[in-house]
């Protein structure tokens, strides 16, 4: 996936605008591991960034300014960031086998047919997935191109650029979150290129699912159930503040978790599971005759008590894997706080992946 803007050049610093925190990461990928040179994490108040994107620009700007002050090296660096949420939409299509140089023009026309948005308000891109011998509405055996259309709302990109400009940050590239994550995890986890593999980022405000095959991200879906929803369920049923419920949830990752808190989570975890099932159904309905061989879970809320247990039925049981990202993210300099790295490892894939981009 090409960046939405930017050109090839030196390695960039990854800047992840996450719902729970702003993460700034620099380093390099080597031997299946990301060797971290700098790590900065600035927690954000709930809902400053949510599943729709940046909602409180002044708060996010102040957090970014604070983060940039924590390392002199950031002032000399160029950055890459990523977009996600309902402002990103994709559609897999098949084109007749036209010359490659004509594909961008054809993609624009196809986008007008399948995306409901006014194309003047979105950035259109595509991923060439490969060749196909079956083109719809054409004679059997007609060769064509298999493509993933990608659209991104311009406003989402412009909001990031505006915050970067206000902070005097050199933002060279904006990419799509799940393309960055897919590239990173394929290298880290040595995923099979032949299988259809689901990557599930259980974040604070939403869960993002992508499907990886033959070295490409071929499907993306996001739904607004994540760590905040889990915490809200505990707080509401047990009469706790959001902060106390969050602390209880985090403590429960290490073992002791009251049964009444687990009962409080059952409803929202059931909804979350139904969304995963629907995601697989949508993937299959979009023309794929393949099943998902593996589901790899990661992200800050992936260790929520009861979450993996709810996937122990026949549909998911043998396919579920919890990604141990702490094994693949390593401090390479003394400036990296190893305790901080261990604590945040499950939530650093996007920032590390962006840190591997060139701009």
Q: Gist?
A:
The protein is built from 9 helices and 16 strands. The chain has 359 residues and is an alpha/beta fold.
Count of DSSP helices? Answer: 9
CATH superfamily of the largest domain: ATPase, nucleotide binding domain
CATH C-level name of the largest domain: Alpha Beta
CATH architecture assignment of the largest domain: 2-Layer Sandwich
| Strands in their spatial order, largest beta sheet | 10-6-1-2-3-16
Strand fraction equals: 25-35%
Sequence of secondary-structure elements: EEEEEHEEHEEHEHEEEHHHEEEHH
Structural class: alpha/beta
Low-confidence spans: 1-7
N- to C-terminal separation?
A: 13 Å
CA radius of gyration: 21 Å
Give the secondary structure arrangement, pairings included.
Blueprint: E1 13-17, E2 21-30, E3 33-43, E4 49-50, E5 53-54, H1 57-68, E6 78-83, E7 88-96, H2 103-114, E8 122-132, E9 144-153, H3 154-166, E10 170-176, H4 177-189, E11 197-202, E12 207-213, E13 216-223, H5 227-238, H6 242-252, H7 259-285, E14 294-298, E15 320-322, E16 329-331, H8 338-344, H9 349-354
Parallel strand pairs: 1-6, 3-16, 6-10, 11-14, 14-15
Antiparallel strand pairs: 1-2, 2-3, 4-5, 7-9, 8-9, 11-12, 12-13
């Amino acid at each position: 996936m090409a960046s939405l803007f930017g050109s090839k050049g030196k390695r960039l610093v990854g800047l992840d605008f996450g719902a729970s925190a702003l993460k700034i990461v620099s380093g390099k990928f080597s031997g299946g591991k990301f060797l971290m040179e700098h790590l900065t994490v600035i927690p954000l108040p709930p809902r400053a960034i949510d599943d729709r994107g940046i909602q409180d620009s002044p708060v996010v700007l102040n957090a970014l300014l604070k983060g940039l002050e924590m390392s002199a090296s950031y002032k000399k660096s160029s950055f890459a960031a990523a977009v996600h949420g309902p402002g990103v939409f994709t559609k897999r299509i098949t084109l007749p086998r036209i010359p490659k140089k004509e594909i961008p023009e054809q993609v624009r026309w196809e986008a007008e047919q399948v995306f409901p948005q006014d194309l003047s308000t979105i950035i259109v891109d595509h991923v060439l997935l490969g060749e196909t011998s079956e083109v719809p509405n054409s004679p059997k055996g007609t060769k064509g191109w298999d493509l993933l259309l990608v659209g991104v709302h311009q406003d989402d990109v412009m909001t990031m650029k505006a915050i970067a400009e206000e902070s005097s940050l050199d933002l060279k590239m904006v990419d799509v979150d799940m393309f960055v994550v897919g590239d990173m995890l394929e290298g880290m986890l040595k995923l099979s290129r032949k299988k259809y593999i689901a990557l599930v980022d259980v974040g604070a405000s939403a869960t993002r699912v992508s499907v990886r095959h033959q070295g490409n991200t071929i499907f993306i879906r996001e739904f607004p159930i994540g760590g905040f929803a889990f915490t809200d369920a505990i707080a509401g049923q047990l009469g706790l503040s959001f902060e106390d419920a969050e602390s209880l949830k985090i403590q429960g990752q290490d073992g002791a978790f009251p049964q009444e808190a687990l009962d409080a989570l059952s409803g929202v975890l059931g909804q979350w599971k139904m969304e995963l099932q629907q995601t697989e159904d949508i993937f299959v309905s979009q023309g794929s005759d393949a099943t998902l061989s593996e589901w790899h879970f990661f992200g800050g809320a992936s260790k929520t008590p009861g979450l993996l247990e709810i996937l122990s039925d026949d549909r998911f049981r043998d396919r579920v894997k919890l990604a141990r990202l702490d094994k693949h993210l390593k401090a390479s300099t003394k400036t990296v706080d190893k305790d901080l790295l261990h604590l945040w490892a499950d939530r650093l894939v996007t920032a590390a992946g962006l840190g591997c981009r060139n701009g």
